[in-house]
Design goal:
The complex is a heterodimer of chains A (196) and B (119). Chain A is α+β, with helices and mostly antiparallel strands and 196 residues long. In chain A, α1 packs across α4 and α5 crosses α6. Chain B is an alpha+beta fold and 119 residues long. Chain B has one domain: Cation efflux protein, cytoplasmic domain (Alpha-Beta Plaits, 2-Layer Sandwich). Chain B is built from 2 helices and 6 strands. In chain B, β5, α2 and β6 form a beta-alpha-beta unit. Classes of the chains: A alpha+beta (196), B alpha+beta (119). The interface between A and B is medium-sized, with 23 and 20 residues. β2 of chain A pairs parallel with β6 of chain B.
Amino acid sequence: MILFLRLIARLLAFVLLVALALLGLAVAVFSIQGDADALSLPRLAEYFQLPDLRSDAGRWLDQLEEPGPVALASLGGGVAAIAAGVLLLAGTIVPPRERFLVVEEEDDGRLAARRRAVAQAARSLAEPVRGVTAAKVRVRPRRRGRGGRLAVVAVHPRTVAGSEVEERVREVLVPLSEGFSLRARVRARRGKPRVE
Amino acid sequence: MSTGGTPPPPPPSTRLQLARVALDAALTVAGVVGTARALESATATAHDRVPGVVVVALKDGRYDVTLHVIAEVVPLHDLADRIRERVVRAATVAGLNPALGPVAVVFEDVVAGEARADR
């Protein structure tokens, strides 16, 4: 969730900065001339239809002062804007927390590992297996409790059967998957032959 | 007569002593390459900082110790048990065993054995 909010906040910040830069450029260009010449600020305001916008906003604010559907809609809009602002702030401020893979949780201590550590261990076990040219590993800890999932894609050349590779990799991963309460899923994928 | 210099740092707290003892003990275990360097995985005071170990006081007066370890490619479960044993033994030798609470081991990363010399 926080990762998603962070992504949205960054994207929005980028878009706003680009918009601000373009607006600044436009203001700079339209400051070259004065009065109502082609490159003057009043002309820029006309291009953006600011006078019309001002009268529209004025009418809308007049309606807002009286009870009615516009006031209710604006109240809803205001609340939604506040909520969106809070979420974006959370996306900017709250650091993303990586879920640990919890292996053991006893009174005398806890054993846990980052995904990266377990993935690296699995890769180290899978890559030396005969017929494997590369291994891609993904670890997904459970949201609550111990263990998680271990997904391994073993890349092999055409000369080796995929089922054999899957079997061998699954065998070497048994100590890791049992030790860390991981449900291992191994998939073989044909790739380019290893050149040595 | 005043010396005029900065006052000497206070003696290390039990928390800091435990952090140092636990870190030193963990680093002597075969299979441990190093510890995490991040700020959030360190025990710090105004005068000192012990990276890779977080020591937190518990309600009962003991301290929870969490070691953030970088390990070699070895069976991690067994390694965690060895680290715990070594930490408990070192705390006992240092006279800190009454203050030692649960010892948690978090594997931050696993690296190839050759990397040990670099760290």
